[in-house]
User: Fold HAD family phosphatase from Gordonia hydrophobica.
Amino acid sequence: MTDDQEADGRRLPRAVLWDMDGTLLDTEPLWTIAMEQFAEKLGIEMTPELRTATMGNSSVDALTKVYDAARVPDSGRDFDGDEAWMVQQVLALFADDLRWRPGAVDALELVAAADIPMVLVTNTIREVTDTMLDVLGRDRFVATVCGDEVAAGKPEPHIYRRAAELVGVPIGECLAFEDSPVGAAATFAAGVPSIVIPSAVPVRARPTFTFRETLEGLTLDDLAAACRVGTRSGAAARDVQKYEA
Assistant:
């Protein structure tokens, strides 16, 4: 953060933590196709309710919910094999149709121009994330944290706490961007203020959330305002380990 940013009365975040799927990249429709293919592979239909339940989940959590819906016994749950199958499906889909969310590029450039370090924080596994970074631009981020690199993915707080550790900033002085109920829950549980741009599923309001319809038109004043909201509510949020989204 520069002296000029402090001098004009704005207190900007010391780091910005970006979710990827549905926030920066319009991948949710492609994940939906892959999840439908997986459900069909297990002999069931991917209902809207099941898709909503899996949205934004880590791969293990998403697979578990589909296994449960298909009544697959524990002995028949091949997490490693089915995850590898899913990876191949989504990479093929992403190769053909990977798009930015509205305003995402300008938002990244806004934060970069303010010299605020950015971390990519995603439930997506490392193998898939590394492919997406070719689109996002690796050099934009000082670090990346994936769902398969922490004890438990979103909605647990571990992934955001790890991101703050990697950038060396107290988590309450960061600002996160999220789109899903699962991701937003993780920010609240971790005690990081967040700007939430719901992409496909409504997100329950929480004291540390600032809602926007899109990243288009984002300004530094918007970042500062979201930080003020988080500061006022942060003490209560940091006492919460998790909540049911």
